[in-house]
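User: Hello, can you help with two protein structures?

Assistant: Certainly.
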Amino acid sequence: MKAQKHIPRRAEKQRTWRPIAGLVALTAVVSAAITFWLDPSVGRRRRATARDRAGALVRRTGRRLTRWQRTAAATAFANTQKLRHLRRGSRPVADDVTLKGEVESALARNRELSRLQILVDVFEGIVTLRGQVEHPEQMREAESSVRRLPAVCDVHTLLHLPGTPAPNKVAALRASAGAAQAASAR
């Protein structure tokens, strides 16, 4: 058999009254709360005040959550707009004359494009390229080298191959051809 530890009498007494003391304290707190809320003279006012404060707390929390939601939505929208507009980099403001010089320099740096006669027009950051190129790759290269410039907002290309009309002249040529056919039919 195992030997049992000897527990002093004092420790036994402490173990027996501790649970009872906790139960007594809990009973005292519950009875005080019941007396506080159900007091016949002031209990009605206390319950009404508690109900009003609880309602105010719920309303205030709802307003705070709504405000927080609006702030979060506005911040998310602002961040998406910042990202959307940073895609092509920030565009430094340049006047049209300066931008035209930069475009002509960019075209001159490319050996394939430097020997071609490409005219450059600039209006409010929009670059228009006019002229005749020898190969379709030169059209794409000219447009891409101009688009890489940070101050360029957009590029309109009116470049064309030898023997083909310029893109801005196609409609006029068709109209004049139609008018010539109508005149010869008379």
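That covers the first. Now for the second protein you mentioned:
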Amino acid sequence: MKILLFEDDLIAGLEAGQTTPCASRLNGVPRLSEIENPRPPGGEGCKKNGEERRTAKIRTQPFFKLGRPSAHAASFQKMNLLLLLISFWLPIGLGACATIAPARASDELERTWEAAIVAIPEKYFRLDGSPGMSPILAGRMKEMMPGLAKIPAGTKMPLVIYMHGCAGLDFYADQDKRFLVRHGYAFLAPDSFARQYKPKSCEPMTHTGGFHRGVLEFRLAEASHAHEMAKTLPWADQRNIFMMGFSEGGITTARYVRGGLAGRIILGWTCHAPWPEYKGISGPPDEPILAVVSSKDPWFKDPSLSGDCGGPMASGRKIESIMVDADVHYVQGFPEIQSKIVQFLEANRRPGN
């Protein structure tokens, strides 16, 4: 189902996205040559054409001339060969170490958890006069643990695991936090930028993305880790854990395969992409999904990214896909969409706690 709205109802603005440096792109989408041979995060494809040709020529030249060289010349040639091999393989080895790096490394995931933003609605929090206490408990997980421990025993509250966009926990993430807390949902957002190794994946000012194709693996690992850790929170209602993602976080939410959620909300994403691992919807078919995107989203001008999460890919799934007649990325700024989000959360809350 699609609902068309007017742009005049908009409350908020833009967000972020990501692409590889010096890559040849069309509206932020990698060309076919990049998709088949993606550039590494280090931007090794950024040399000028002439430099690339010279490098290729040097590497394909014979290491020595035909004929029997003198002992001195042979020694010199061996030294040159050794230096050439070192200069060729060392950058590759170092690049591999950097790129293989730790999408699922436990220490990196723990950093995203400790730096996660957590916020608790006022109605669930006991004001006991302790210094520094406030009606709404909010902050980074690591610093908030003492305050969270003061939530009365037996308290169970619905929780939304929030996956931020490629710009991180920015103004729009804060707006979504306030919105969810205001409606009685605890908010938990792992911080992808807390990683020690975090390649850039977008350029928000130009609406371009795709700089780091492997970012999806990073984000899926963070989502899974946050989901697992949420199960250890005594105040989280385990029957009512939702996931909501915006932009890059929306891709993550759409492709989250694990299941065990009360529902998922995909915002600012079409579910269409030239990279197969980004395309479509994963997870149990009976898991409720709400998906919302603008019809003229500035991030998705290329035909390979256009559309919405409905149609054939939604077949057999409990999904409501909404396309807003607008040209904004932060689609949840519309009051009508905010109402839809609240209705979806309330309709899919499971009884018992």
